[in-house]
Write a structure and sequence with these properties.
Number of helices: 13
Radius of gyration: 22 Å
Helix content: 25-40%
Strand content: 15-25%
Number of strands: 19
Length: 443
């Protein structure tokens, strides 16, 4: 994406007849919010003078300390291609600041920036390439989403069985108009499931792109009469949606994970980074897999990882090291799902990896056979641990890991845990259709 200055944004807005600008930011759960302004207020916005009421955003601040300032990132300026040609609508992604000019501790984008600053002090930059999966479902007569798919296609299938192909093509075209470089677009394994991959970028730009990606996918799906969902496991018995996250560090302009003389062509930093991810994987799950539904995906038999292990060969462990080397050397974390707040998720991944490098955490020996085919005794013998099996378990693991708390900061950590415990308690007390089907006639 081009790196615009304030002057560039003002000029393009005039040239392109932009009438409204949405100042976008996310809450702590990764839900996109915005304040709409007219183009007449754009100069004021770019001078960081736009205020909003933070008390109305979940997880932000109390009413008595509610004034927040939005600081737009000029390089995030983009025009929405699906809006009218006359009186166009654009957006700017913003950081949230306190009235005294300090970064607001409850802003997820600021959390990622802090982690990236720490990496920079160690001489590293982080690049990320996400693989976002989603489902396209039909809507009912009232326009509400169903779980009925529009196709019976499978992995890499083409039309006519892939009836979502037109919608997916329009999504790709729209994303390209907004500055994305699309690398791949295909039907996934499950009926109605799709994946669009875009080129890796630095971590902050990638987190911004994930938020934009989800907005575009939902918007274009709706225009095709479909509902797009990033829910990890909307349908029982078929694969869920993940967000495999390819990550690498650079140092002095080179890929820090690449070493032609290292074992498997990997540097010591790469191994330490893997060691850090594995050490903190269970605690990170509350951030990378943040919903009750996330753990319905993390079960054996559906390609999603369940066990804390790594491999350069197979796809059953938590971490895979793809075969490419040189500038493309990377580590793929396979458990995150697209409900994760990308700013918080990338921040905890980076901090876990940096912890590995700082403390020279060696990962265990790679597991190159299919872990799903091992019995429990074999896994115990190999020292292969399990990821948390529920949101409740993940929150307990996070509570035991001071690194995650420190990464998020006290404000976000406290608000996040409070909300997620409420979510878990609500889930525990609700009666599911499964319970009705299982017990109502039996007893």
């Amino acid at each position: 994406m081009p790196k615009y200055s304030k002057e560039d944004v003002m000029r393009i807005a005039v040239e392109q007849d932009v009438m409204f600008v949405r100042l976008q930011f996310t809450d702590i759960f990764g839900v996109l919010k915005n304040v709409a302004i007219t183009v007449n207020e754009l100069d004021k916005a770019l001078n960081n003078e736009i205020m909003f009421d933070g008390s109305s955003i979940e997880g932000f601040v109390r009413i008595e300390e509610s004034d927040m300032y939005l600081r737009p990132d000029p390089s995030s300026f983009a025009i929405f291609p699906w809006r009218p040609n006359e009186g166009k609508v654009a957006r700017l992604i913003c950081d949230v600041y306190n009235p005294d000019g300090t970064p607001f501790q409850g802003c997820p984008r600021n959390v990622l920036k802090r982690a990236l600053d720490e990496a920079a002090q160690m001489g590293y930059g982080m690049s990320v390439g996400p693989e976002c999966e989603f489902f396209l479902f039909l809507t009912d007569a009232e326009g509400k989403p169903t779980t009925v798919t529009h196709d019976n296609a499978g992995y890499f299938d083409l039309a006519p069985v892939d009836l979502g192909e037109d919608a997916r093509r329009d999504m790709c075209l729209t994303l390209q108009q907004m500055g994305f470089e699309i690398e791949a677009s295909h039907h996934e394994v499950a009926p109605g499931q799709h994946e669009i991959d875009f080129k890796y970028d630095d971590a902050l730009a990638t987190a911004d792109k994930i938020m934009t990606f989800k907005m575009v996918v939902r918007t274009i799906a709706k225009r095709h009469g479909l509902h797009a969902t990033f829910m990890p496991k909307p349908v029982f018995g078929i694969n869920g949606s993940g967000m495999h996250t390819n990550q690498s560090l650079s140092k002095d302009g080179k890929n820090a994970f690449d070493d032609p003389n290292g074992v498997l062509g990997l540097s010591k930093e790469a191994y330490y980074y893997i060691g850090g991810l594995m050490k903190h994987a269970k605690a990170m799950a509350a951030i990378t897999n943040p919903t009750v539904n996330s753990y319905k995906r993390l079960v054996p038999g559906y390609e999603a990882p369940v066990y804390v292990a790594w491999s350069p060969k197979n796809r059953s462990p938590l971490i895979r090291v793809p075969a490419k080397r040189g500038a493309a050397t990377r580590v793929e974390l396979r458990n995150p799902d697209p409900t994760a707040n990308p700013y918080l998720a990338l921040a905890v991944m980076l901090k876990a990896g940096l912890d590995g490098i700082k403390n020279k955490i060696q990962p265990p020996i790679s597991v190159d056979e299919n872990i799903f085919h091992m019995d429990e005794d074999a896994r115990v013998e190999r020292g292969i641990d399990n990821l948390p099996g529920s949101l409740d378990e993940a929150l307990k693991e996070m509570d035991k890991d001071p690194l995650i708390r420190e990464t998020l900061g006290e404000h976000i950590y406290t608000k996040y845990v409070e909300a997620k415990m409420l979510e878990w308690d609500e889930y525990k007390t609700k009666i599911s259709q499964w319970e009705i089907d299982k017990y109502i006639s039996q007893f």
